[in-house]
């Protein structure tokens, strides 16, 4: 298979991590001519509910629903069925839920999309959070071994389950590509331009660094949403993305 080609303006997912819908929609409106996909996480979704998904779709955006489903297979299948009905472009599940859980999620998404004539959403597995340092993984979570090895193990499991790709830090991109192939999608959070400063994420990378390693999608939040001019910040990052694409 040949590597999937993603246009520069499609590579950036903006994390709308707001506690109210008005601010989220206001920022999205400012970015409407620059970025195609908005990420809706737990904070915004629990405040605004499914309405935020429909409002963003009405504005012409694709939606990545980032709620990281992790439960017994039947429950996650039900969640996948429900979220697919809202027309999301992508949603994620935790790889730690196991093979059967991931399989059921993908199957439910396909079944619901076909039944209602919708586009089948991409289902992505969450490997390890970018806030997970080595000590956190080993001492606190209780999983032995290197973060990289666990991420690659989960990526292989996600591929076996039929998922479209995984969420991982930029530091694991090349290992995932080697293990799962170039067409297996990598969605990379923890992306911080050099001019944006630090945050609470441990395993971070610049947009250019991640793209040179082969990332398909970059999740970027505060560097854009907390900027004095979100549109200008998005255009600055998009220019870096376009330079890497040439």
Automatic annotation (TrEMBL):
Entry binding sites for substrate: 17, 39, 66-75, 130, 192, 201, 221-222
EC numbers for this chain: 4.1.1.23
Pathways involved: Pyrimidine metabolism; UMP biosynthesis via de novo pathway; UMP from orotate: step 2/2
Q: How does it assemble?
A: Homodimer.
Cite the NCBIfam families for this sequence.
PRK00230.1 (NF001273), pyrF (TIGR01740)
The record's family statement is: Belongs to the OMP decarboxylase family. Type 1 subfamily.
What's the protein called, per UniProt? Orotidine 5'-phosphate decarboxylase
